[in-house]
Design goal:
It is a single chain. The chain is an alpha/beta fold. The chain is built from 10 helices and 12 strands. The protein has helices at residues 24-30, 46-64, 76-85, 122-127, 132-153, 159-164, 168-178, 205-213, 229-232, 284-294; strands at 9-12, 15-19, 33-35, 69-74, 92-94, 97-99, 108-114, 186-192, 256-262, 303-305, 311-313, 326-328. α2 (46-64) crosses α3 (76-85).
């Protein structure tokens, strides 16, 4: 499930020039999994996008005959997944309109979010800052994005609500209170932190440095260029050497399992080849291949995620045969 401003693929005639989850579907297909990457509106609020994801997943269930899917959401795609799976309740009016869960949990086995702003993003706050000159420039840019995307996708777009939904105030005071986790669904979270400027795409270096300068109390700290590690992991830390889970940060969800932190920026996490010199420290193929096995009920090995995207299997645990059938979205 792609994020804000995302897409399935960009083509020139018959040729695919850019794919959001670069070659991941083909990799998982070679492993014996059925993997899909539908496309929804690049600019819209999570509730509107969740309805579009549900329509796409219904077609996948009919096509495959599967009873459930595993959802993997990058960035805003993770928020969409949460709305899709959350129990239905009385709609609550918010700054982006009415919001409630869609109750799709009976058809979902697990939700994995990658660099999803569960606590919102300071960058979205900066975009929405109420400064006269800044506000005029941002409004002009939003309108241009909305018109261009609407023409390309041939459906209305809502950039205003899409950005507002990513702010810290909306996520902490609204979204997280309304959108609750569904019983019976497993929840996993992954973060990104390139550690060094050298591993950050030039496009993201200004925001990467900005977030590193902000105190955690104001939404800053280690980040992937757009989302902090704390926000991505939903307030959960990684287990220590003694295996004990660290305390959950305020606003966090203890039932979410933090899988690890990738040494990758927000673009590289899904394999988008937009770096002038692609860092070789992170392998997105290794990450997604291992993730498929982590959420696969037929794969019983215990695995831990390294920053380079590689997974380490616990010694003495023997996995079952390779290529166990499954469905991945």
């Amino acid at each position: 499930m792609h994020g804000f401003s995302g897409f399935r693929e960009i083509k020139l005639g018959r040729w695919t020039v850019l794919e959001y989850f670069e070659d991941v579907r083909r990799l998982l297909g070679a492993m014996g999994y059925r993997a899909f990457a539908p496309e929804v509106s690049p600019f819209d609020d999570p509730l509107a996008r969740a309805a579009q994801w549900e329509e796409a997943i219904e077609k996948i269930l009919v096509l495959t005959g599967a009873e459930k899917v595993h959802l993997v959401g990058h960035s805003q795609g993770g928020l969409d997944a949460r709305v899709l799976v959350a129990p239905k309740g009385p709609p609550v009016y918010t700054p982006i309109g009415w919001l409630t869960g869609r109750g799709y949990a009976p058809y979902v086995a697990s939700v994995t979010t990658i660099a999803t702003p569960h606590f919102g993003s300071y960058i979205a706050d900066a975009v929405e800052r109420d400064v006269p000159g800044h506000k005029v420039a941002v409004r002009t840019l939003k309108r241009a994005m909305q018109i261009i995307a609407a023409l390309i996708k041939r459906r209305p777009q809502n950039v205003d609500d899409a950005v507002k939904a990513l702010t810290r105030e909306f996520m902490l005071d609204g979204f997280n209170h309304i959108i609750q986790d569904a019983p019976g669904v497993r929840y996993y979270a992954v973060a990104g932190d390139p550690i060094s400027d050298d591993a950050v795409a030039p496009l993201l270096r200004p925001t990467y440095e900005l977030l590193n300068k902000q105190p955690p109390s104001e939404g800053g700290g280690p980040n992937d260029g757009l989302v902090t590690v704390e926000s991505s992991l939903f307030g959960n830390g990684l287990p220590g050497d003694n295996g004990e889970a660290p305390p959950v940060a305020p606003h966090g969800r203890a039932n979410w399992q933090a899988l690890g932190v990738l040494q990758a920026d927000h673009i590289a996490e899904v394999g988008l080849p937009l770096h002038l010199l692609r860092p070789n420290t992170y392998d997105h193929f290794a990450f997604f291949a291992g993730l498929a096995q982590v959420v696969d009920d037929a794969y019983t090995a215990k695995m831990t995620l390294r920053m380079d995207g590689q997974w380490e299997r616990v010694a003495g645990v023997t996995p079952p045969r390779v290529g166990a059938p499954g469905v991945r979205v």
